[in-house]
Amino acid sequence: MDVTPEGWGNVEINGDIPCNYPSEAFIFESGEEIVIEAVPQTGYHFAGWEGEPTINERDNPLEIEIDNNMALTATFAPDFYEYASNDGKVTIAIADGTDVEDGSGEPVSEIEFTADAAPPPLPAQTALAGQVYYVAPDGTTFDPEARLIWSYNPETLPEGTNAEDLVITYYDEGDSEWTLLKCDVDTENNLVTAEIDHLSTFAILIPLPLVAPPPEALFTSSALTISPATVGSGGTVSISVTIANNGGMEGSIVVPLKINGEVENTSDLTLAAATSQTVTFTTSRDAEGDYEVNVNGLTGSFTVDSTMVTSIQPENFSNDAPEPEEQDSGGGINWLIATPIIVAVFLAVFLPIKLKKKHYEW
Asked: The domain spanning residue 243 has which CATH number?
């Protein structure tokens, strides 16, 4: 008796659970009836039997009359397959058995998340509570629906807003508008979940109070971009974030850049009311490894790979040689050639006359 994958479940024989897998032989009398049951661990389910004798692979438990040697393996599968963004903030959980197809009706085996640094305009009276993600392949559908799970940082929510009002939306390309999804908010674990039947551009939003903007400045951060995500030793990484002043008057803010928890740089910013500006930092590292980035509460990372070659070109260097100036091939005078000749003739003719005249005056 065996199980696969190891640790995803156990097998009970007449109520006894074998201690080790593959288990040692169990001896029963010929003609004896036994009950074999596959018991999955939490988060997994029984997927079928493999081995001998030939049986209905989906029957569970099995009621068998012993008449020959047996070698069975219980197989288990996870209840959900999960795909997550690189920063771990967004997860799509797909139940086992879900039909996942692209726009051409072909099965989809990979899902990719891309942070959208220039998302479509947000609905009025809303603010971002995290990144905007474009999730591909475009046109992918789920039947039944998949679960979108989004984690948020309560410390970065605009002052005066309530986490229970957080919503997940997707951008409808056909109608050019954001569409609300029915959401559940878990304020204890800082999670928002929604059911989705297709992939799109997704955002987590917080409604702003439907009142006049406060008289003071109110700053929010969004659209953290780290480029490139992987760089060679000593290579330059560009880190940018958009800072918006959603308040009613001009204000100033110090935007800090932290690498692995240490403040590396800051940017002093002054914004008028209802304006925004992108702040960009650059950094580099020689040591290979992963580096955590935090800009005003938004987090990401980049990787230094010493096997990569960093290409450095002199400033203002161009591979494009300047086009030679086109010469006039018509009947006009080429002054580049004619001018030196005229000067030479002038000196040859008039200079002796001048010298001669001076000679007589002496």
From this structure: 2.60.40.10
Nearest-angstrom CA–CA distance, 29 and 357: 143
Place of tokens 């209840």: 79
β-strand pairing of 230-231 with 298-304: parallel
251-259 vs 230-231, strand pairing mode:
unpaired
Partners of residue 67 on adjacent β-strands:
none
Closest CA to 186 of 148, 151, 147: 151
**The pTM is what?**
0.47
Backbone angles phi, psi at 227, to 5 degrees: -145, 130
Distances (CA, A) of 68 to 61, 63, 65, 248: 19, 14, 9, 83
Identify the domain containing residue 264 by its residue range.
Answer: 219-304
Identify whether residues 128 and 194 lie together within a single domain: yes
Encode pLDDT of 298-310 as tens digits. Answer: 999 999 998 887 5
Please answer whether residues 200 and 135 qualify as being in contact, where contact means their C-beta atoms are separated by less than 8 angstroms.
yes
- What are the DSSP calls for 238-252, one per residue? EEEEEEEE-SSS-EE
Between vectors from CA 261 to CA 260 and to CA 264, what angle results, nearest 5°?
A: 85
Burial class (CB in 10 A: 0-12, 13-18, 19+), 131: buried
Residue that terminates a domain, selected from 137, 172, 207: 207
The dihedral region occupied by 156, where left means phi > 0, alpha psi between -120 and 50, and beta the remainder, is: alpha
Render pLDDT for 1-51 as a digit per residue (tens, 0 to 9).
Answer: 788 888 888 888 888 766 567 776 777 788 888 888 989 988 888 888 888
Structurally, how many domains does the chain consist of?
A: 3
